[in-house]
Amino acid sequence: MKSTALGPNLLPQPSRLVLIALLIATTYGFLWPAITGDMRDFLIPWLDTILTRGQIGAFAEPFSNYTPPYLYLLALISPLSGVLGDIGLVKALSVGGTLLLVLAVRHLLRVAGCGRNVEMAIWVALLPSVAVNAAGFGQCDAIWSAACVMAVASAISRKPVAMLLWFGVGFAFKAQAIFIAPFIAQRLLSERMPAILWPLPGLVYIGAMLPAALAGWPISDLFTIYLRQAEWNPEFISNAANLWAGVQYGAPTAGLAWLWLGFVAAAAASVLFLIAFRKLDGSPTPLIGLALLSAMLLPFLLPKMHERFFFLADVLALIYAALRRDRLGWSLFLLVEAASAMALMGVLFRLPLPPAIGGLLMLAAILILWRNLQMSTEVKSDRPGTGPLPLARLDLA
């Protein structure tokens, strides 16, 4: 019997795909009736503003603490609210983003040489964090994550300009795209990317803000949205599966005075990341492992992280496991998913302890992956004839 990444093939592929589709439909149908506080207090009022003021007129002044790219999409599909309802419309946009994520994952797996790229990509939609985020919470994390996955695919294809552009798209949607910044910087240095092209993500961000600015949204507001997001709920430390969830659980008041340590630790870890993996093997699997490490490391060290901020790490962990097809890959995947599930449990049931436990699981995954990648780097450095990578290609194809 033929063996696969998920075990023996008990069903032919078409039957497996049908089964996965049924699981997705059942899971999303179960989650669909949920209405969160974020939807009531933020997402639905934003949609109401668009419906009241018009698809363009709404952008004449600030009406959201999100950057405009998500709001552009919301405005684009707003005429369907009469058919889908406000809540249905918001969730439909989130599910559409999940479809984009599945397509991006399929592209990355295909570029990396995975023969089962279609089937493994579809499994992404069933990850607990992905399904709950789209059908339950109506959030848009799949959109920025899809752009980041495309950036990783471009890095593997040695197209650094495309990598920077996709990274810029992700950052324009959500600041959380910064979690793969250490990975992006490592590839720029390894590919000897001309420094003049490094600001490309910033130019993408400016371009994404331009339509709103032309409609009247103050430029000063557009370029400080992410700064103001960090000021939301000054008593909040973290409910993500990270180091600070333990602080939130054990010392929620005293810990507020020490949040600066998280930013220092994240900056120091990013520098160490670049030094430790400057000679990493440039083949697909190690590079995806490096992107996964980056997507875990920063949200683990930074304070004020929400439970969904390991969203990209969840997706990359599945991709990494699908490519490795070994015990290490699947062990890392289970650790990351269990950590995210603990954070979700903490949010859904208002329990502060599960995210702290999830933080220990995430720490274990980070240490295991760091050591494995470091060993790969040491092996590569010992090979005769290894040296710097050739100059980067600047094509987008």
For this structure, the quaternary state is single chain
Characterize the largest beta sheet: strand count, sense, and whether it forms a barrel. 2 strands, antiparallel
What is the helix content? 55-70%
Q: What is the 3D form?
A: globular
Overall radius of gyration: 21 Å
Structural class: mainly alpha
The number of strands is 2
Summarize model confidence as the mean pLDDT.
92
Order of helices and strands: EEHHHHHHHHHHHHHHHHHH
Termini separation comes to 40 Å
Low-confidence segments: 1-8, 385-397
Percentage of residues in DSSP E strands: under 5%
Strand order of the largest sheet: 1-2
Number of helices: 18
Can you walk me through this structure?
A hairpin with a 2-residue loop joins β1 (3-4) and β2 (7-8). This protein has 397 residues and is an all-alpha fold. The longest helix has 31 residues, at 81-111. 68% of the residues lie in helices and 1% in strands. It has helices at 13-31, 37-53, 68-77, 81-111, 117-123, 128-136, 141-156, 160-173, 181-190, 200-215, 219-222, 225-230, 243-250, 259-276, 284-301, 311-324, 327-348, 353-382; strands at 3-4, 7-8. It contains 18 helices and two strands. α4 crosses α5 (117-123), α7 (141-156) packs antiparallel against α8 (160-173) and α13 (243-250) runs antiparallel to α18. The two termini are 40 Å apart.
Distinctive features:
397 residues, mainly alpha, two-stranded antiparallel sheet, 2 strands, 1% strand, globular, disordered N terminus, disordered C terminus
